[in-house]
Amino acid sequence: MSKALGKYKELTCLSKKKEAAMQELKEPGIWKSNSMPPALIILWKLGVKAKPPHYNSFLTNALSTGLWFAAAWGVLMWLVQWRSMGLPVSGAIASALVAGVFFGLAMAAYYKSSARKHQLANWVDLPTE
Length: 129
Known about the structure:
- By secondary structure, the chain is mostly helical.
- The protein has helices at residues 3-26, 32-35, 38-45, 58-85, 89-117.
- The protein is elongated.
């Protein structure tokens, strides 16, 4: 099998899984903003093969949402408040990381409980054809 054909089959398989996942998430009434958060849509447009968060592991969701939140919230707080308060950079980083840990754990717990509640299939079990 040629490399190009293998790549095509891989993309087709991913597309089918994504379609099946979106349908499975839609059936119980999970909001589109929860099943396809803006960061996921951006990743897809950039060509990243990312799964919807309901199909990720707890750790993957905790790290991805927590790190994103820590960075965004930390920069925002630094620009809006912490810099003018004279908070040392190390304190700002520590605060942002703590907030990121709590946010990441909360989001990971939400996605895991939502997947269980709605009895969603595992990513590997979604149809590819």
